[in-house]
């Protein structure tokens, strides 16, 4: 099978985008792993597939697969790239889009230049919604890893996130503690682990060890979850800049029951064809 693809990224979180409307694509976890492989395939953190919507209220459905082959619920940087992709590939002429994901409905707005703003929906904070094993909701939870107790926030942006505060994000044990949190048995569907440094009420820095991938240059849902968790702890204002290794996102959240808005760039790198 020969498949046309577009290579894109959102702040260095990179994607293979597939148009599943104009071409027939049959994917398997093995094929996704091959596409994502940086030596034997194209190479990416996530494979994103655009399909026709299943509900009349949405313009498209977009499906998200981690580099390990598993399908997941949401991807913030991917959502911005999706909006740019469907315009560039002339699948729509709209600048405001509604898209269905496995984690819920997202509303997207193509702004000037390369910027895209996304209504990421209302974060879920109850443990069973994340899912996270805890007796009841709390702003923070103790989490034991190898005999040490860490304080985490737990947030779902459609997909699960644990958020740890750190003093110096450069020195944070992202690649050693990250995988242990990702696979912690209190997160039955595994989790994305964010390490957040709060510099002021409007400026933060974040590194994320992503479920099914490892540390990425940026994580959109991770940035949303980090701001929600810092807001719940009373540390930040409603509008916060999140500096990630690949660049900066602006996140807005005004509190419980409110949706999170994420704004940042989406970049097209090249077009290609691959034999799958
Ligand atoms: N990079 C993404 C998140 C992709 C999914 C994540 N790894 C998961 O397993 O939930 C983003 O920008 O949000």
From TrEMBL:
Gene3D superfamilies: Diaminopimelate Epimerase, Chain A, domain 1. Substrate binds at residues 13, 46, 66, 76-77, 159, 192, 210-211, 220-221. GO terms for biological process: lysine biosynthetic process via diaminopimelate. GO terms for molecular function: diaminopimelate epimerase activity. The record marks 161, 210 as: Could be important to modulate the pK values of the two catalytic cysteine residues. The active site is at residues 75, 219. Its EC number is 5.1.1.7. It is found in: Cytoplasm. It holds the Pfam family DAP_epimerase. GO terms for cellular component: cytosol. Pathway: Amino-acid biosynthesis; L-lysine biosynthesis via DAP pathway; DL-2,6-diaminopimelate from LL-2,6-diaminopimelate: step 1/1. It catalyses: (2S,6S)-2,6-diaminopimelate = meso-2,6-diaminopimelate. The record marks 270 as: Important for dimerization. Keywords: Amino-acid biosynthesis, Cytoplasm, Isomerase, Lysine biosynthesis. Signal peptide: none annotated. Homodimer. Catalyzes the stereoinversion of LL-2,6-diaminopimelate (L,L-DAP) to meso-diaminopimelate (meso-DAP), a precursor of L-lysine and an essential component of the bacterial peptidoglycan. Belongs to the diaminopimelate epimerase family. This is Diaminopimelate epimerase. The lineage of its organism: Bacteria, Pseudomonadati, Pseudomonadota, Gammaproteobacteria, Cellvibrionales.
